[in-house]
Amino acid sequence: MSKQNKTTYTIDECYMMMFSEYEDIVTAQEAASMLRLPVKRVYRMFRSGEIKSFKDARDVRTAKLWIIEYVQRYGFIRQESFRKQRKAAVTVFCQEPKSRKQIQEFLDLADKRFFMESVLQPLVAEGTLVMTKPDQPAYVHQKYVAAKRLTGQEIKEQVEE
């Protein structure tokens, strides 16, 4: 029986072939190249917990498999489209009032400061989210709700995008 060339591959095998030039443990610069994102964005993703990472001597590194896991979950994304996806997800999630912690956990972000500065405050500033107690912005039990109420059909459309 002759050995035939394999013509079908699993998704994991495709990504492993795609990233075969990289070592099993990669630096932030290599991760940025793999994800087609700026290095600064990759460092933020490491810091916020979007991509698992570890400190090695002086550099922050991640496993190639963790990058593949991230790509399988979110795909290759540009920063602007990622913000739009995140904004749409938060708008749908916050149809009912939600606390800062609930929104942060929903987005699966570990770093509170990063979440506040790069996600929550910009959404409040642009009017996507509204505080339930706007006269007390630092209120411990502050909740956030989407400024625009979505109908069932609109929610479906947001989720599909």
UniProtKB/TrEMBL annotation:
Q: What are the Helix-turn-helix domain coordinates in residue numbering?
A: 26-58
Per UniProt, what is one Pfam family of this protein? HTH_17
Q: Extract the InterPro entries matched here.
A: Fic-like_C (IPR049514), HTH_17 (IPR041657)
Taxonomically, what lineage is the organism?
A: Bacteria, Bacillati, Bacillota, Clostridia, Eubacteriales
> What positions does the domain Filamentation induced by cAMP protein Fic-like C-terminal occupy?
90-144
User: What name appears for this protein in its UniProt entry?
Assistant: DNA binding domain-containing protein, excisionase family
Q: Mind telling me which residue stretches traverse the membrane in this protein?
A: none
- Entry superkingdom: Bacteria
What organism is recorded for this protein?
Papillibacter cinnamivorans DSM 12816
